[in-house]
Structures are given as C-alpha cells and as structure tokens.
TrEMBL record:
GO biological process: L-leucine biosynthetic process
Gene that specifies this protein: LEU1
Cofactor(s) required, per the database record: [4Fe-4S] cluster
The organism's place on the tree of life at top rank: Eukaryota
Domain Aconitase/3-isopropylmalate dehydratase large subunit alpha/beta/alpha: 9-467
CDD domains the UniProt entry points to: IPMI, IPMI_Swivel
EC number: 4.2.1.33
SUPFAM superfamilies for this protein: Aconitase iron-sulfur domain, LeuD/IlvD-like
Protein role: Catalyzes the isomerization between 2-isopropylmalate and 3-isopropylmalate, via the formation of 2-isopropylmaleate.
Stored PANTHER family: 3-ISOPROPYLMALATE DEHYDRATASE, HOMOACONITASE, MITOCHONDRIAL-RELATED
Organism (species): Arthrobotrys musiformis
Coiled coil: none
Family annotation (InterPro entries): 3-IsopropMal_deHydase_lsu, 3-IsopropMal_deHydase_ssu, 3-IsopropMal_deHydtase_ssu/lsu, Acnase/IPM_dHydase_lsu_aba_1/3, Acoase/IPM_deHydtase_lsu_aba, Aconitase/3IPM_dehydase_swvl, Aconitase_4Fe-4S_BS, Aconitase_4Fe-4S_dom
Protein name: 3-isopropylmalate dehydratase
A GO cellular-component term linked to this record: 3-isopropylmalate dehydratase complex
Length: 771
C-alpha cells in the first residue's frame, strides 16, 4: 500500500465505525427519505419496536407519486392526490414522519421537491459526508465530494435504526475529462457520452471520481447532472472533489454551517483536504477529450445506447456478436426505429424537461434561452417543464422563465419526479416518442409502450421547437457564444436562500399533516406484517432453473413502476417481469413465449441469466420481493448491478455471479432440458441432479453467515452500540457542523437527537445471536 488515497478512500476511511475483517460498518451522516421506498422500512422499525436514531440527520419529502398540477387549492394529501395507491403511499409517509419525529417537506411547502434536488438546495448535502437514500440517483450528491449512494428498503430500515450501513469497499474508477466543451455541448452530453463509452456495467463495483479541467469548470448544477447518472454507468457512486465553486454554492444554504462562523472555517479546512492524492491508485481509468463530445442523444432502451445527434440509428447487421445484434433489433423494434435513420429525422410527440438530472435553475434558464420568442411545433402534443423543487419554481418565476415557457407552448408544472418515471399522472401513451432530460430510457419507463430519447435541456427545448430530434447547433438563432460552456455559472447562496423563517412558519406549513391516526397498532400502516428482521435460512436449494437469455435486465423490467405504490413487501410475484409475461393490450393474458409462463419453469426456484448486469437501474427492493414472491430464491448470472445484488441478500436470497460464460451456458442448457440443479451454499457449489459439481462459487463470508443462519443484520449492528456511540462522540468533536443544527435552531421545539435503543434486539427471530 502506497498510503496515497483517492477522494473516495478518504471519505470512506473517515466514516468507518468498525471493521471486523469481514465487512465494514460505515456511519451515515445524511439520510434522505421518500414515499416509495420507506413504508416497509418504517413498518419494520415498528414491528421490532425500534426508533429512528438520528432524526436530525434525516430529511423526508414526497416526490415520485405527486401530481404536478397546480397546488393553488392544495389543502392536504388526502384531498389532493386522486389516485388511491399514490395517496396511501404519501399519507403513510406523513404518518411515519409524525410518528418518528422527522423533518418533512410536504406538498404545502416550497421546499418540497425531488429528493436529490432538495438535499443540495438546503445545504443538507455537504462535502465529505456519507449520504444515502432509498433511491439509486443518490449518486447525485457526490457532486459535493460526498460519498452518496442508493440503498434498498431493508437498508433504509438499517440506517433509520442504527445510522450505519454494512458495506464493502468498492473499487476506484476515474473518468477524466479535459478541455473546453464545444458550443451547444453540456455536462449532460458529457455523461451520456461517457456511458456510451464504458457501458451500463462499466462502473459496476466501483465508485467513479470525475475529474479533469472540464469537470472543474462546471457549476454545481452541471456536476450534479453528471454524478446523478453515475448509476447509469453501473457505479455505486460518483464523486467530484469539492472546490471554490462548491464552497460558493454552499454559502447561505439553510443547513450548511453559517458563513464565517468557526464551524464554517473548520468545515472549509476539512473540505479542502478532500481530494485525491497525486499518484493514488485507480483500478480503472478512462480519459475523454472534450472535443470528442457532441450533443448526444439516446436511440435505444438503455442509457448506453447513445449517438451524436449528427449520427444515425445503428444497424444490427454491422455487429458480428449475435447477442448484441439481437439486443439492437429488440431495441429498434420497441423504439419503432429503422436502422440507419439519421437521428435528426426522428419526429417526436412530447417533450419533458425535468427530473433529478436536469430540473435545476440553470437547466431551466438554458432551455428558456432556446425557446424564448418561439413556439413549439404543431406535431408536439405536449411539452412540459417540471422544476425540481418549489424553490426553483419560485426562483424561475421571479426571473420570468415561466412566462417564456408558457408563451412558447410549454406547460409550467409543480415540482416532482413527473414524467421521469410516470408513477404520477404524467405519462406517455403507448408508442409516443419523448425528448426527455431524464436519465433512463428503459422500456415502459415513462409509460407502458412509451419511447424515450435522453438528452440535455437545450436539446429537449430545441426538439420542442422543431418537432424533431434536433442538433442544437443548427437551430435558428443559436448563439454559440451566449454562455461559454467552459465558464462556470456559479450559483451563489441567494439563489435558494428562501426558507421558513420561524417555528410558527414551519408549523403552519406542516399543519396539514395527519397526526398518525392512520397508524395501526399492529403491523404498521396497513403493511404486510413482514420485516427485514430475519428470514428463512438458506443452505441448499434444489429445483428447476429457468433460463433467461437477456443482458442488462433492469429493475424497471423486473417490476415496473405501477407496482411500487404498495406499502407492503408481499404479493408482488404477480407483477414480476410484467411487460414480458403478459401480452400487450390484453387483460393480463399470459405470453406463452415467456419462460416463466411455461412448465416446469412456473415452479423455478433459480433463474439463470445468460447476459451480464442483471438488476441494473433503480434501487427498488420490490425487484427481489417480486422474484421471491414468485418463488425464485437464487439467481445465477455473469454479473449483477450493485444495489440489486445487496437487496437480494437482505431478503434471504442468493445471487451468484459467475464470470466463466461456459459455466453459465452449461447451466442454461440444463435449464433448457428441464433438469433440476442444486445450489449448495454451505459448500459453495452448484451441482447437477446427479450430484456432479458444475462450478464452485464465491460469496462474502459475512453475507453467507447471515443467509445460512437467517440473521437480521440490524440486530447484529445494534450489538455494537458502544462503537456507534464512540464514533458519534468523535464526530461531534471533529465535525460539529454535521449535527443537523440547522433544524435544531430553526424548526424544532424539543431536542432532535433521540436516545438510541438501549437493548439490542435478538439477531435471529427466536434464535441465539452468535456473530
Ligand atoms: C423509486 C425508486 C426506487 C427509483 C430508483 O431507485 O431509482 C426511482 O427513483 C427511479 O428513478 O426508478
Ligand atoms: S430518476 Fe426520476 S424518478 Fe428517480 S428520483 Fe430522479 S426524478 Fe425521481
């Protein structure tokens, strides 16, 4: 070991609560919570009689399910949200934040917005912190030099209860981008270009540090767009070393330390050390010359399917690899595109400017500059602008951006995730084509059968004006010198300074929240009664194995968004692979071609996937819940996306990555022959029906131990209460600005730090704790 450390190494090291040689327990500074991935976690806490350890370090909002229609007559969630499941999920969050004494920005509050927009906007996200959320795009916060990553619902419960997470060190990856960007090219183009280069599995197992002169020149908004999409590159997190631009952005943010206070000075001293030591080792290095980045758009159904706007739709015949060819053919069919069509000849139906990638003030300003004085094309049925937060909306209105958009024919909406994933009323109809500033173009992402083309805000704005995917550089009146892209557009504090001024103000804003009467005494808010606490031990699994010949199977495909509105963990098997399992335009008539609709695979206990990167995309733990509910406990694949991989273990399931493709093919052949296989976790072997060992496999010792014994890792962590307290004491001394003092001073009447639960829960239901 050279002793030289990367930015990631430094932040990781500073958060180690303990390392027992098998896994590392990391302290979490900031926990963001939203309505989709939290109900089951709160239910688990309630079932185990646990409290939230650090309400002062936890911030909740509603974003995914909320309608983006006018809130002029908004009174409360129950009367405002029409769709029943969405309403229940939002109401459940409100019940939970009352019951657990958490800070919450609801629909009546200007500070409400997409969770990854409001954290930075409030100064909740700070350099050098660990930030988690039950959401894959938590990587956004890495733009501040934070170690920020998405987690599943079981881990949400773990963090709520212990303020820690059990983890394993990732590899270090560097993406260096140098030189000034060309006119019309933005950081969104840079990240789309980078993902096209490395692929959606390129960053698997890694934390990416983005560096180089191009990155240094970017504003915080531009940096957030890039770190946001690290997850689309397969990485656990993306990070950018903090610098003067970061510090400037944080000045006067409500929850950042007060400028010029001793805390601010101490924080700046610490933050300035948060950079990679020259000569520190990276496992993977990627270099990009900014001259090679053009305005970039996606053509297919994966974020790696990108091309310069001046390019053409790819031709499957140009690819020798049969699997690759089949993948492109499938994507073209879904997207309704002909090979070799120039991208600029693709006509669109809708435009969406929003999402946690591109809904910040700078994005809206850039798009407004393009549409100013113009009108959307006649073929554009709908064009929407959805600010990332209520405060951004206000700011934009103060600058007259809403007028510019409205005059051009765009709808000016209220804050939320909106059409990024259509869990709310904003969706595409089947076959509608959308120019979108969001981050995922998976099948059905913006609505069943909808077709998404990812791009930057200026490109989406230009598409709205012409009605076609458009090269921004050719748009009438495009002024290449208007905003030199290599000059940082620094957003200073006053941009987002607005805040609830007094306790009374805060109380008024939250007075519409119910008081917890919806909470049931048993089983939480109508949940399944299930919990992450303990599961059936996994030792040997023998049974039918179903073959699935696909690569990059995303969690939207495993279970689409409409099923995420549940507050339970159970009953999701019926929705597993929904789009592939049922014929379109039928009343859930089974597609006989799909493997899980065939005998004997309906009873499969194991899935063998022949392509890599299974479970990529969102952090939804609903994906393993759906598999488990269907009966699948083990998945064998060449590789897995990190968050999905974690989530399976938390549910007593075993994912087995096998990089020898011949072994995968052999198991797939046995599966095709309807033969059973045996997965022996104790001996770490996969065997034929006759007991012949097909392959050995690796599994982390700690995870194996938990699986074999059906252990609840929250209980295990709570046994180390003394170490957590020791870490917290040290943290208060060295990093006093992390205590959540902003909330204490402004919004709270009582103390915010509740005492941790003193009596550790048993690690195994009814069993002996032996770890
Ligand atoms: C709902 C949530 C689990 C999901 C995510 O983790 O990314 C969502 O935000 C998405 O973008 O698909
Ligand atoms: S990716 Fe879309 S759905 Fe997910 S958090 Fe961001 S805006 Fe919301």
């Amino acid at each position: 070991m050279s002793g030289l450390r990367t930015l990631y190494d430094k932040v990781f090291d500073d958060h180690v609560v303990f390392n027992d040689g098998k896994s590392t327990t990391l302290y979490i500074d900031r926990h963001l919570v939203h309505e989709v991935t939290s109900p089951q976690a709160f239910e688990g806490l309630r079932n185990a009689n646990r409290s939230v350890r650090r309400p002062d370090c936890t911030l909740a909002t509603v974003d995914h399910n909320v309608p983006t229609s006018s809130r002029k007559s908004y009174k409360n969630v129950s009367s405002f949200i029409e769709e029943e499941d969405s309403r229940l999920q939002c109401a459940t969050l409100e019940d939970n934040i009352k019951a657990f004494n958490l800070t919450y920005f609801g629909l009546g509050d200007d500070r409400q917005g997409i969770v990854h927009v409001i954290g930075p906007e409030q100064g909740f996200t700070l350099p050098g912190t660990t930030v988690v959320c039950g959401d894959s795009h938590t990587s956004t916060h890495g733009a501040f030099g934070a170690l920020a990553f998405g987690i599943g619902t079981s881990e949400v419960e773990h963090v709520l209860a212990t303020q820690t997470i059990i983890t394993k060190k990732s590899k270090n990856m560097k993406i260096q981008i140098d030189g000034p960007l060309q006119p019309g090219v933005t950081s969104k183009d840079a990240i789309l270009h980078a993902i096209g280069k490395i692929g959606t599995a390129g960053g698997t197992g890694c934390v990416i540090e983005f560096c180089g002169s191009t990155v240094r020149s970017w504003s915080m908004e531009a940096r957030m767009s890039v770190c946001n999409m690290s997850i689309e590159g397969g990485a656990r997190a993306g990070m950018i070393a903090p610098d003067e631009i970061t510090f400037e952005y944080l000045k006067n943010k409500p929850l950042a330390p007060k400028v010029d206070s001793p805390e601010w000075e101490a924080a700046i001293r610490y933050w300035k050390g948060l950079k990679t030591d020259p000569g520190a080792h990276f496992d993977i290095e990627v270099y990009i010359d900014s001259k090679d980045i053009a305005p970039t758009v996606s053509w297919g159904t994966s974020p790696q399917d990108v091309v310069a706007i001046s390019g053409k739709v790819p031709d499957p015949n140009d690819y020798e690899d049969a699997a690759k060819r089949a993948g492109i053919e499938r994507a073209l069919e879904y997207m309704g595109l002909e090979a070799n069509t120039p991208m600029e000849e693709i006509q669109i139906d809708k435009v969406f400017i929003g999402s946690c990638t591109n809904s910040r003030i700078e994005d809206l300003r850039a798009a407004a500059r393009i549409v100013k004085g113009k009108k959307i094309a006649a073929n554009v049925k709908r064009a929407m602008v959805v600010p990332g937060s209520g405060l951004i909306k206000k700011k934009a209105e103060a600058e007259g951006l809403d007028q510019i958009f409205s005059e051009a024919g765009f709808e000016w909406r209220e804050a939320g995730c909106s059409m990024c994933l259509g869990m709310n009323p904003d969706i595409l109809s089947p076959k509608e084509r959308c120019a979108s500033t969001s981050n995922r173009n998976f099948e059905g992402r913006q609505g069943a059968g909808g077709r998404t083309h990812l791009m930057s805000p200026v490109m989406a704005a230009a598409a709205g004006i012409t009605g076609y995917l458009t090269d921004i550089r050719k748009l009438d009146g495009f002024d290449a010198s208007a905003a030199p892209p290599d000059k940082p557009q620094v957003s200073v504090g006053s941009d987002h300074e607005q805040d609830a001024a007094t306790n009374q103000d805060y109380d008024d804003k939250t007075s519409d929240i119910p008081t917890g009467e919806n909470l049931h005494a048993e089983g939480g808010s109508g949940g399944s009664g299930g919990s992450a606490a303990g599961f059936a031990p996994f030792t040997v699994l023998k049974g039918v194995v179903a073959p699935l010949a696909r690569a990059n199977v995303d969690t939207d495909a495993i279970i689409p968004k409409q099923y995420l509105k549940t507050i339970k963990r159970t009953g999701l098997g019926v929705a597993l692979f929904d789009q592939w399992r049922y014929l379109p335009n039928t009343n859930r008539e089974e597609n006989p071609e799909f493997v899980l609709n065939q005998e004997p695979y309906r009873n499969a206990k194991t899935l063998v996937v022949t392509g890599p990167n299974f479970g990529c995309g969102s952090s939804r733990e609903h994906a393993p819940w759906a598999l488990l509910d269907f009966g699948i406990k083990c998945i064998i694949a060449p590789s897995f996306a990190d968050i999905f991989f974690n989530n399976t273990f938390k549910n007593g399931m075993l994912p087995i990555p096998i990089d020898d493709q011949s072994v995968i093919e052999r198991i797939a052949a046995l599966a095709a022959d309807k033969k059973e296989i045996e997965v022996d976790l104790i001996n770490q072997e996969i065997k034929t029906e006759d007991g012949e060992v097909i392959s050995k496999f690796e599994v982390e010792e700690f995870r194996k131990h938990c699986l074999v014994n059906g252990l609840d890792d929250i209980g295990l962590t709570m046994q180390h209460e003394d170490k957590i307290v020791r870490y917290e004491t040290k943290r208060s001394e060295i990093y006093p600005w992390l205590e959540g003092t902003g909330y204490m001073a402004k919004y709270r009447k009582g103390p915010v730090k509740v005492e941790a639960v003193k009596v550790p829960q048993a690690g195994r239901r009814g069993g002996k704790l032996d770890w």
